[in-house]
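TA notes, week 10

Several of you asked for a full example with nothing omitted. So below is the full record: structure tokens for the whole chain, then the designed sequence directly under it. When grading your own attempts, check the secondary structure regions first.
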């Protein structure tokens, strides 16, 4: 049984269920890595192409941050309880870690530093000089708490659903923003780092890699503390800036590489 169009909005998903009663069901809830307008390249679309016997409910919204996540949660909770998905795929935290929120926790080297209560371990000098560790720790906890809210919904309404979370990949502070025809947006990363005196490209990558690594560390801890949950660790997949369309979104080929190398083996056997 191969389903033709299997990546569906809610109304389409509901109409498809009686037509394909034996199909696997998956929810894709998250940010622009699951809904990257307008290109047919994002992870949600790549994964749907790989698993043609699965009906995917697409709940991705470009630019979804913590506030938008919370606003959508009641609807997603109802969907989890109603459809008892075989797999729940989450893409969350990127906008809070290396998106526009970065402006809230960069600092100049001469400004004071406080590590807060997070056990950071060894901190690279560029990070110590230019990231407000206490503020970043708070942002990190909020990002993980948002993901945890979906885990709680799953535990209550569909404990058999397997949840997948992912680490994104190491971004490139190139100063390239989103572009669609005449529409252009400012870049997410480089202007904020430049503004606080961190202008060396190598040091900028040290900082952004470290931010992604801290997010991955917290995700790994969350997964270790919850049953029926998988971490898709895709760090280091895209090794050149040419594999990125802009600062935080891979090219179509980049998304495809991440989906093929990491998501496909993780999902095989859970959906078809």
């Amino acid at each position: 049984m191969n389903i033709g169009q299997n990546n569906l909005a809610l109304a389409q998903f509901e109409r498809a269920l009686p037509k394909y009663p034996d199909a696997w069901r998956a929810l894709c809830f998250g940010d622009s890595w699951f809904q990257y307008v307008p290109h047919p390249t994002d992870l949600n679309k790549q994964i749907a192409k790989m698993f043609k016997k699965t009906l995917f409910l697409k709940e991705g919204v470009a630019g979804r941050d913590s506030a938008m996540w919370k606003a959508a949660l009641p609807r997603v909770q109802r969907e989890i309880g109603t459809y008892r998905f075989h797999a729940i795929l989450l893409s969350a935290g990127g906008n809070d870690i290396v998106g526009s929120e970065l402006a809230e926790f960069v600092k100049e080297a001469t400004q004071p530093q406080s590590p807060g209560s997070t056990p950071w371990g060894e901190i690279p000098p560029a990070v110590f000089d230019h990231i407000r560790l206490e503020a970043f720790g708070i942002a990190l906890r909020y990002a993980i708490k948002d993901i945890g809210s979906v885990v709680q919904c799953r535990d209550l309404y569909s404990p058999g659903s397997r949840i997948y979370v992912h680490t994104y990949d190491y971004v490139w502070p190139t100063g390239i923003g989103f572009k669609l025809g005449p529409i252009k947006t400012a870049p997410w990363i480089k202007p904020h780092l430049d503004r606080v005196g961190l202008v060396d490209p190598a040091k900028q990558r040290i900082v952004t890699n470290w931010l992604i690594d801290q997010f991955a560390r917290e995700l790994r801890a969350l997964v270790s503390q919850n049953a029926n949950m998988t971490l898709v660790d895709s760090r280091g997949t895209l090794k050149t800036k040419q594999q990125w369309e802009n600062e935080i979104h891979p090219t179509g080929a980049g998304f495809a590489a991440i989906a093929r190398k990491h998501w496909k083996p993780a999902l095989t056997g859970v959906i078809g």
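Residues 112 and 204 are 20 Å apart (CA to CA). Use that as a sanity check on your answer.
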